[in-house]
């Protein structure tokens, strides 16, 4: 069974930082692109960040660009997302996802990701 398990969410004060983790199992994710998406109730999942299989290339959504870092350790089947200088709009459920290298479409589109975690909730207090 393929699973992705996120952790690290919770209540964080605006201006603070958070670091989310995603641990995969049941599949070799080292050849996948790993992504992070955020969702608030009633909305679609918004792209936050993605990282290529060897970690050499990353891309970020406009809302977190310049204050976020995505990283991975394939030996640990783990991906991290750090966001600094949090703002209330960063709140939501954060999902980790994996897409195969050959998947069509942009990394920024959730439709290309075939494996998803259950999400971790982030609340930002102002």
SSE layout:
Layout (H helix, E strand, L loop, with lengths): L2 E5 L2 E4 L4 E8 L7 E7 L6 E6 L6 E3 L7 E6 L4 E6 L8 E8 L15 E2 L3 E6 L1
Parallel strand pairs: 2-11
Antiparallel strand pairs: 1-3, 3-8, 4-5, 4-9, 5-6, 7-8, 9-10, 9-11
Relevant terms:
globular, 7-stranded mixed sheet, mainly beta, 4-stranded antiparallel sheet, 126 residues, 11 strands
Written description of the protein model:
- This protein has 126 residues and is mainly β.
- Helix content is 0%, strand content 48%.
- The protein contains no helices and 11 strands.
- The strands form 2 sheets. Strands 2, 4, 5, 6, 9, 10 and 11 form a 7-stranded mixed β-sheet that branches. The chain has a 4-stranded antiparallel β-sheet with strand order 1-3-8-7, with no helix packed on it.
- A hairpin with a 6-residue loop joins strand 5 and strand 6.
- The N and C termini lie far apart (40 Å).
What ranges have pLDDT less than 50 throughout 5 or more consecutive residues? none
Q: How many DSSP helices? A: 0
Count the E strands: 11
Give the strand content.
over 45%
């Amino acid at each position: 069974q393929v699973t992705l398990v996120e952790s690290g969410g919770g209540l964080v004060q605006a201006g603070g930082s958070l670091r989310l983790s995603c641990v995969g199992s049941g599949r070799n994710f080292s050849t996948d692109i790993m992504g992070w998406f955020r969702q608030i109730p009633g909305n679609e999942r918004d792209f936050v960040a993605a990282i290529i299989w060897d970690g050499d290339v990353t891309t970020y959504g406009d809302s977190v660009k310049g204050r976020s870092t995505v990283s991975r350790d394939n030996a640990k089947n783990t991906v991290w997302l750090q966001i600094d200088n949090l703002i209330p709009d960063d709140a939501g459920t954060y999902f980790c996802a994996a897409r195969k290298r050959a998947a069509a479409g942009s990394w920024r589109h959730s439709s290309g990701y075939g494996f998803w975690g259950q999400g971790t909730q982030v609340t930002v207090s102002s």
